[in-house]
Design goal:
Length: 246
Amino acid sequence: MMLPTAAATNWYHNGKEAKFGKLTDFIEKCYAFCREEYASALYQGDFIADDLRDKIADRVAYFAGLKKELVLKLNLRLVKMDYLRQVLEDRGLEVGLYDSRFTLPLNPDNAREFMVRDDAAQSQFAPPFVWALSGPMKENLNITFDRKFNGSSSIAGRSWVRTAKRLPAQALAASMRRNPKMKVLFANGYFDVQTKFAEARYLVAHAGLPLDRVGIAIYPSGHMSYLGEEGALAFYEDVRKMVTGK
């Protein structure tokens, strides 16, 4: 699930169309590799033959933008939080968890639990949101409460009650079964390392959803697919088509 997002990140920082061709074509090649070779190799685990391990490491390194020696050391598996620091390590940079197009100077001592607060993408787009929601929007909408607006809160996240007896995908499938008019659009960004677009495709393939009422869209953006004019317009158009049927 991680490799296609790593491929998009690699595409953006290490050559784009001049080296890899169109982003969509590069991602489809990565999907094909994941489906036809990579999944089988990972399934074999430590029983994989040395020559096949070497071949798979070559391809993973190519798509992810990593050195083959590192891929072999990782036993062919990418680790999300580590990858942020690995892909541009030779330039002294780390990429953003929420949008891997953004970078910050590499900080190897940055504890993982603080990555959200000290994230290359969050540090760029969170302040404008906090400013707008705590200032002009409150004034224009005549909101008068004095509570502090937090752009991100790990404390709030940990306090959520997660006691549902079934997975969200199961609940969604049940809702769509009961409501024949319900439609769903899975909207992802190519450069979102936190919620990866390959995971959305996998979920749709395995959740028992009515595929004639499900859309999957990937935009040239990060965690919030509506950020950036190109992504926002495409997202708007896809939502409009889903709602109107035209």
